[in-house]
Amino acid sequence: METKRSRIFVDAVDGDRCTLLVGRKGVCVTLPLSLMPEGTSEGDVLIMTLRRSENLRRSSRRSVAGLLEKLGERADASN
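Structure (tokenized):
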């Protein structure tokens, strides 16, 4: 399974938000500060790692299917 890693520069912290410059091109992204490691501040450099999870994907699909089934049962019961 492929893993992607990117360097992130913390450009600004403003209250509960932070502005990040992601990757070599410096793509600007604003995220809640609560998603960052504790103590993150302006000028920090972070490493972001992204990896797909087939297990979580399957689990999410089963959950959604179960919810749709319940909704269908409710709709049938109300008719």
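The chain has a mean pLDDT of 91. DSSP finds one helix and four strands in the chain.
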